[in-house]
Amino acid sequence: MTATETVAAPEKTASPMLSLDAVARTFADGTGLNPVTIDVARGEFITVLGPSGCGKSTLLRCVAGLEIPTSGVMHLAGRKVFDAGSDGARAVNVPPARRSLSMVFQDLALWPHMTVAGNVEFPLTARGEKIPASERRRRVGEALEMVGISAKAGQRPHQLSGGQQQRVAIARAVVDRPDLLLMDEPLSALDAALRVQVRREITDLARELGLTVLYVTHDQEEALSMADRVLVLRDGKVAQFDRPAVVYENPADEFVADFVGTMDRLESGLAVRPEQVEVAGLATDPGHGTAPGTEATVESCSYVGGRYEMRCAVPGAPRPWLVHSRDEHAPGTRLLLRHPGA
């Protein structure tokens, strides 16, 4: 595999839940979101991945109606919710409260003066629908039970842990069963172990409710593990949009290859993932002189749990290779590495 290999764009999704046609947002300084054209199927979980400033949050805000696109057309659940009015079409901009979507913000945005139940109930009253109090209580109870915090219904947000506050925000977002759930780096404030637990809960809940999700993250592992498809953005442009395995194993370009995981490279153009590299033995062992492979010199070796992670100098490589090994090798050790293309 080389980093310059490309993959075909995903086919158009029949009857998509969300459809963006050349949706763009340009700011005064020239930055923003370049025309994005994607279809998202009903019940699909899409992670939006990219470095800071690439347009991830701008994309979500445009879909939510919190940011007005400069151009393009947007449909949600078969209904046109935005049209910039180009090509003689009538301009359309459906307000956020009427777009049948919910959003979980990075800072959660919980009302500090309300109880947990009050926060979760808020969307049922804010949209102007006349829902009987008994029905609101039923929906709130159901949402709290789904995220496992029914016992906290009468408490205030400041009385909860970070993970519990996160679950309140999720319950509030799903209480009225939106057509689309938007999540903007919702787990960034949680510690590593809790992040893994909550992201599993989010994907389980999305499958259980059949939710369509657009989930922004800068965490590559999070993006790959949660998604049906990954949308990679760079400088406001779509770099790749495909299944996690395709994005990882067949990156569209060098940026995607390096951003989604790590690539070991040679100047010849060869690029392999660290897990494709095997330590065949010591380069000084008898018989290895004629064996196929790549010689490398260990620069550093660290134990990372279950394996060692080494940085190795490789002749013809623009930077040290990352190599995994079950055994510890001291700096200065010369190894023979086997990998595709060796």
TrEMBL record:
It comes from the Bacteria. Its EC number is 7.6.2.9. Residues 18-260 form the ABC transporter domain. GO terms for cellular component: ATP-binding cassette (ABC) transporter complex, substrate-binding subunit-containing. Pfam families: ABC_tran, TOBE_2. The keyword Transport applies. Keywords: ATP-binding, Hydrolase, Nucleotide-binding, Transport. This is ABC-type quaternary amine transporter. It comes from Brevibacterium iodinum ATCC 49514. GO terms for molecular function: ABC-type quaternary ammonium compound transporting activity; ATP binding; ATP hydrolysis activity. SUPFAM superfamilies: P-loop containing nucleoside triphosphate hydrolases.
